């Protein structure tokens, strides 16, 4: 049985969701797949902005006796104004809602970008420290009601949006307003540079990616300072970031080697790098600091996992074109206790699309892990 859950959320004082219907509803949405005979354990799978109502794992967990929820945040389908701190509030609302429904064990599953988010949530639920967004705005998570989860599942996850975004940022773009002006010495798609890429090129490339992220952040800070001079005026602005899918690992599979093939989930990297639907092309000043700024975002998955105490399983696909083995290792190594497990899904792609046998295998493995860690009720 599938039930649509309307979970009351803590509203923001600002208009950060375009839809008036969504704001009036005041809810985040989840889809509950119930196990035959009922379950006192629920696995809630979440992502900052992807629609997980139809997540592939939900019916398979329910068939195996575990209730499962595909959980959305208020930013479903549009992360242009997303604040990671509000996503934490939304997860808190969902965990509290599920506790009130009688679940004795709640496991948060962070899939893809949900990995860093669930780590951030559990860290702040166990020991809150964050009093504002990086722009100095609410919410204050030290005053929020954030019930801790009982376990964490990191599923084909990366360490956090700002971290992976910086790893993907195209440093060859020399003019933020003209993405076709490129530095050939840093052009991932100029065959004179590779692949294969030299160690010297990769070092320069990674340094230039950091530098570009920091240049954008400095510009954002300047813009916010200018807006603040008129406290009754506009306090945020949208802007575009070009070239956000240019990780060298997309074109050179010898870097962080795995079973993946060259390319991305969105096609060849050169094309995916510029498509409007790509990662983080559209954002706002305040969202940039919370979501994409490498120096400002609170969503550093490994750091926050280091502040957690619950059983954690890290699963990664060996053919994943989005989250790489180094991501899984960094996440696993950050967990500070021994109740952790690192599991390779052999041949698994990012969302296991067209791989039903692996979906079943992952579901079986998750249930086994729940049982081994006394998380099944």
UniProtKB/TrEMBL annotation:
<dbReference type="InterPro" id="IPR022742">
    <property type="entry name" value="Hydrolase_4"/>
</dbReference>
<feature type="domain" description="Serine aminopeptidase S33">
    <location>
        <begin position="306"/>
        <end position="354"/>
    </location>
</feature>
<protein>
    <recommendedName>
        <fullName>Serine aminopeptidase S33 domain-containing protein</fullName>
    </recommendedName>
</protein>
<dbReference type="Pfam" id="PF12146">
    <property type="entry name" value="Hydrolase_4"/>
</dbReference>
<dbReference type="InterPro" id="IPR029058">
    <property type="entry name" value="AB_hydrolase_fold"/>
</dbReference>
